[in-house]
Amino acid sequence: MELLSPVPPGWGGSLLRGLLSSVEIAVGAFGLGLLIGICGAYGKLYGGPIAKDLWAVYTTIVRAVPELVLILLLYFAGTDLINRVLVMAGYEPINISGLVAGILVLGFVQGAYSTEVIRGAILAIPQGQIEAARAYGMSPILMLKRITLPAMLPFAIPGLANLWLIATKDTALLAVVGFNELTLTTRVAAGATKAYFTFFIAAGALYLLLTLVSNVFIRRIERWARRGMPSTAGA
């Protein structure tokens, strides 16, 4: 069959490079989203009225608007707005690479969801621990480092793990803006060889492999975070 005809050599390396680009964006976006999420969770829980309202608007809008629309808006309008501000401030416009733009765009989207995951995890911490830290006179930063983050991690990992898997798949949305990640590479390869079935099955297998490898590391991180806690296996 024509769809299953041998694929010309060289495309396998292209697919792997596309996968590497997808992983780079996913790692950067997840890390950026995690930083935004920590700030957002603290802002919504302990910030002033204005900070709480601003974070609420951010999380509501990002979670309400389809991700593809946000990506198109931020990718094109966002970079243009940055350059307009730079020109108004007397600086030269800059060229933002596709990798950096992809990380910033997906990280901005991830941040809204991370905010709610981390906020829920913080609320799940026994309040006696927080009150004890305050009674000892810990600063907010020290309390975050020694009490809040370690205590909320077991509650946050399931939600954050889902966000990581979503980040790996959301990189495919960047194909619509021309970034050369796995999905766009697959589409180009399939169009050049007409072996659509072969290439999209290969891309699906690579995404599945990434998910399986991620699940192995997620389980290890979860066991490490829950060390010393009672097991719920028999619950």
From TrEMBL:
It comes from the Bacteria. GO terms for cellular component: ATP-binding cassette (ABC) transporter complex. Residues 19-218 form the ABC transmembrane type-1 domain. Pfam families: BPD_transp_1. The keyword Transit peptide does not apply. Belongs to the binding-protein-dependent transport system permease family. HisMQ subfamily. It is found in: Cell inner membrane; Cell membrane. GO terms for molecular function: transmembrane transporter activity. This is ABC transporter permease. It comes from Manganibacter manganicus. It is a multi-pass membrane protein. SUPFAM superfamilies: MetI-like (SSF161098). The chain crosses the membrane at residues 20-43, 55-76, 96-113, 147-167, 195-218. NCBIfam families: HEQRo_perm_3TM (TIGR01726). The keyword rRNA-binding does not apply. Keywords: Cell inner membrane, Cell membrane, Membrane, Transmembrane, Transmembrane helix, Transport. PANTHER family: CATIONIC AMINO ACID TRANSPORTER, MEMBRANE COMPONENT.
